[in-house]
Specification:
alpha/beta; aldehyde dehydrogenase [NAD(P)+] activity; 6-stranded mixed sheet; Aldehyde Dehydrogenase, Chain A, domain 2; 7-stranded mixed sheet; Aldehyde Dehydrogenase, Chain A, domain 1
Length: 505
Amino acid sequence: MAHSVSVKIPKLNKTIEVPTGLFINNEFVPSVDSQERIETVNPATEEVICSIVAASEKDIDIAVAAARQAFKTTWGKNVTGWERARLLNKLADLIERDAQELAELEALNNGKPVKMARDFDIGDSVQCLRYYAGWADKITGQSIEVDNKSKLAFTRHDPIGVCGQIIPWNYPINMWAWKVAPALAVGCTIVMKPSELTPLTALKLSELAKEAGFPPGVINTVPSLGPVGGAALASHHDVDKVAFTGSTVTGRKIMEAAAKSNLKKVSLELGGKSPHLVFESADLEQAASWAALGICYNSGQDCTAGSRVYVQDTVYDKFTSILVDRVKALVVGDGLEEATGAGPVVSKGQYDRVWGYIDSGKAEGAHVLVGGEKRQSKGYYVDPTVFTNITSDMKIVKEEIFGPVLSVGVFKTEEEAIALANDTTYGLGAGLHSNDANQCMRVSSALEAGTVWVNQYNILNNNVPFGGKKQSGIGRELGSYALEEYTSVKAIHWNFGDKLDWPLY
């Protein structure tokens, strides 16, 4: 049975060879007990790209065993930080070499524009790998004074072990790098479950990991349905940590499974309903551009999408006029076409979900300022839709949509703006625009979110931590903080002078 397929891209007049098996111990293999396949679909054409092997629970067991063996023998504490750094940098070099082909495959399977995938997602992923390569030989503990005459203590930051990593479909390559880089830097091994909607680039990246020279079992990739593969990893007794990016509903299930199995460490980056505040002193032209980016980038399929914009009443009319012009200027089309600035949403299920919310907004009395009309052509396209005349109890205001749908409200005072922003069960991101420095400090401090942007939006850096509050998750990715998610601290007490008298009295 062949474990690869040639995928033709007529629009580009080229063919990409794509692996279709499970990647375990540096080989692409079939399932040990299942004939089930996952069909991947091009959201721009609604056509099947190819089908790949769907991992079963037994396949997960085999992948975890491979990761455990590698952790005990060829990885973990058995290689130096310098060697881990060398391999991470080599992997970054290979991804950079193949950036164009990876971007084309990402556009084909996910729908996003090639240039966005190549220059932003992949460019950032290369930086992420190199950033954590720099950390690999700098994992240090502390020397702690206890009694200089007879005792000392010190700490070690040990790799936590085998990590189950479950990544979403909105940034398939970027989320792969966010999870893989810190885990490998500290010496963990990985069983990666990509989304069943977008598994193709994770499989191509697995090829590059082997080419880079990572030992067998260090990185294993097991495409699978969430209730099968994801559930198996979350409840597995030989997985030491599970990292998940996705919905809050699924995050709860993972946390429960982790608690009921072996109390494995859990980090969760979950949903959001992020607010974006525009004060009267703001540069409205810039604020409108950032607000448009906040909801239109990646077709709104972003955990931090700025889906609730609140504008001070004195500048509301002027701001919304500029915002409409910004939104209308965006070209939404096939990601394989050069002029495209945003592609279709990822799947038929997501398309139906987003249109359900647009219909709900109309039914509940919100006013459509722009968008809100379906195309009569193939592809899961949703043109950016902006609602005004909103109320806080509307579904479009309260619930995460994960599409290019924006609710715009109004406020009079700073206190009201903060109250509106924090009126959500989520706490992932928030933004504010103001040229009053004191106001920027007050409001950024008051906003209940893991990340707050001031006079910009949705820009992340690999050396700055990212994560949520409230129901947006626990733990942090990026920066030095992510290393803590993949290490366990061991305290060692060393007695070199005290003698124990016995018996005790």
